[in-house]
Amino acid sequence: MRKVPLTDSLRIIGRGSLNWLAQRPIVVSFEVTDACTCWCKHCDHGGPRDESRNLRPPEYARYMEALRPCVVQISGGEPLMRDDVAEIVRTIKGSPRRPYTILVSNWSLMTEEKYLELRAAGIDQFSVSLDFPDARHDDFRVYPGLYSHLSDLIPRLARLGHDDIVLNSCITSENVGEIDRIADKAREWGVNLCYSAYSARRTGCRDYFLNTPAQLDELNDLLDKVEARRDATNWIVNAPTTLEATRRYFANGGTPGCKAGLRFLVVTADGALQPCSMQFQRYPLEDRDRMIREFTRTNECDQCYVSIRSYLDKSFPQLLRENVREFLSVK
Questions:
Q1: For position 233, which CATH number holds?
Q2: 212 domain-assigned
Q3: pTM of the model
Q4: What does the pLDDT look like over 173-199, one tens digit per residue?
């Protein structure tokens, strides 16, 4: 599972190497809307927002030309709330430097027709949020019926055989005891799983951080259990070193050394650059060098270990070894 074809692997390796050396971003996350269908307890988005200033699909071409990322995330809010999201994807994939493209979504609005349309438009990977392996997921996201929808749709689409669905489970104090059951659910549905770590920076609420020795012990015990079941299918896509760093992040209350703005950055729905989704300094596209000088070079924030950072917060040789050989291994 989660085997990227040889041509895509080589393209990501080559372009990622050039971007690293040229100090261009490896990953750009386009937050195409601030609106969302859910009101998740661990997120600062939720519900309807002003959409009048959102970038239009043709405008994304200018950002692709200037930033030249080799991996693009299309996120929000909830990106499927935009009726023109497939057109945005086509614009991004129409770049001469076609990026590996990931749609990050809660899938509340996903259908088989939308899935196939987005695949045809150029989505390479679908990242689907899952907080609990049962209907408690609905309560955490304040969206009744969401888990039932996912439990019907995800295995049905997985059986189409495209191997492009990855569950994303953000570890919080609420679901830390479900780590292994979420892994079981991913296996049952025939899809892959990526763990990420809760950050209090987004909402200011530390209630969902792992704050007690008992919670940390449970995290370590259950990650040990999941790691012992890791196999050659890449069913758990996190590298072992990433999960080890996730343990340290919770144990230490943070992880210093973030390269937000340099290795990765966010483009907001209205077209501003931000170092990450939880740092709200805004810069025009033309001022990315100033963002690096003013933010990245002096950044002392240690308050997240989100998925983008966890893959890029490593030395270049380690990044190549892990993300090429393991995550981007060839068919």
A1: 3.20.20.70
A2: yes
A3: 0.92
A4: 999 999 999 999 999 999 999 999 999
